[in-house]
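Ticket 4471: requesting a sanity check on a complex prediction with pyridoxine-5'-phosphate. Repro inputs:
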Amino acid sequence: MPGLAINVDHVATLREARKINIPDPVTAAAIVELAGADGVVVHLREDRRHIRDRDVRLLRETIKTKLILEMAATSEMIAIAIEIKPDLVTLVPEKREELTTEGGLDIHHHKDLVSDAVQALQKGGIPVSIFVDPDPDQIKLAHRIDANCVEIHTGTFCEADTPEKRSEAFERIVDSAKLAYKLKLGVNAGHGLGYQTIKAFKGLSEIDEFSIGHSIIARAVLVGLDRAVREMIALIK
Ligand code: PXP
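Returned structure tokens:
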């Protein structure tokens, strides 16, 4: 049965909206673990717009499942990862101006950079996953540069606005997952997955783990709001 790793970046985004210390993504990580998550994901971005170095360090001490660090293949991030030792690094492309990760890492275009990063991280004792589009060439390249795992980008499938585009995008994910599995790579999948789109993946046994953030944190805000309002009213009355 596939696992679920939860990305808690949005909790940090809310904290940074006020630049104070709540809500704390470290507390959120403990809650998602208690609820049964198989791992916690954070993306330490170059601009530190949400997750901060302090969060990753504390998470390393507190997480009891798996700490998965998403990061760009830069020397700064590689040094931080080797020092903190997450259980898995997922290499992602990163642009300063993007709202969120916009697509898979193009291993073909950045082969030396990505390959060097994989080697440096593995030498530091950290297994490496690469976030890739559902493209057989990218999967084969990830295998060729000895990545341990791929995370298949599900965003195009989740955002497809016609049934034809949706089924075409899903087929590409299935083919890529099967190819990666055949090549003995670990197979994760994520980006944009929600409570409807996840249903399509039932029975796709090649996928080891889903990485989901936005839809779960968005739902948590809505399902938790009623209780939060009642608690404040009780204090006021
Ligand atoms: N996987 C990767 C590589 C990501 O960059 C993200 C977004 O941070 C996710 C999964 C989770 O995507 P979402 O927040 O849309 O569930």
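Notes from triage: Residues 214-236 form the longest helix (23 residues). Leaving this open until the requester confirms.
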